[in-house]
Write a structure and sequence with these properties.
One of its GO terms (molecular function) is methyltransferase activity. This is tRNA methyltransferase. It comes from Mesobacillus subterraneus. Keywords: Methyltransferase, Transferase. It is a single chain. This protein has one domain. Helices cover 74% and strands 0% of the residues. It contains 5 helices and no strands.
Amino acid sequence: MAIFENIINHKIGSITTDELLKYASQFQISITKAQAEKIAGYLRGKKVNIFHDSERTELIKQIAKITNPETAREVNKLFVNFMK
């Protein structure tokens, strides 16, 4: 399971705007291109483990600051789908 978690976390830390939009569309999550650019820019290079609730919660709080709370909730839904 650790390998799977590492792959997902690495992907989040290197995600592009287009990839984020593709995943959002795939999971019926609503974010705009401008929001995806801000989020991908913020995530790029981050070492975060979305499988740890506290780290994911802090990450979502930061995303809410750079976008808005509703977008952060949508991104959290995306992360939850990644963890399934």
